Amino acid sequence: MRADDKINGLNSQITQQQEEIQRLENLDQSQKQLLNENNILKEQLTTFQEKTKQLQDDIQEKQNEINHHQVIIKELEDTMKQMSSKYEKIEKELEEKQNEIIQLNNIIEQLKENNELINDKYQQLTKSFEEKQNEIDQLKNQYSNNYRGKSTD
């Protein structure tokens, strides 16, 4: 039986070695699968890194645009303040000019009234002058008539 024991021992060793080979083949298959999955993960990581870089670039570009727009907004705000200040100044000047116009209109009205008074006075003086001139003419005529009448007598 020794030979049978040896055969059984050898068969047992062969079975163990076959199991070990199968286990190693399974490990090799698992290792290949893990390597394949690792390569896929590396590709995904590379893609993710590229997308991340692109997103960072896009974010930076948008930030630059935002900064540019903020500068424009600041300039517009400054311009608006200047325009508002100018508007207030112009509005004040306009109010002053309107007050001047009102004063000038009042002066014009006074001048019109004075002119009417002067015209009335002028007409009165003219009428009075004409009346006096008529009186003088009448006196001249009377004197002339009296003087002629005495010289013919």
UniProtKB/TrEMBL annotation:
The keyword Coiled coil applies. Gene3D superfamilies: 1.10.287.1490. It comes from the Eukaryota. Residues 7-142 form a coiled coil. The keyword Coiled coil applies. Keywords: Coiled coil. This is Uncharacterized protein. The lineage of its organism: Eukaryota, Metazoa, Spiralia, Gnathifera, Rotifera.
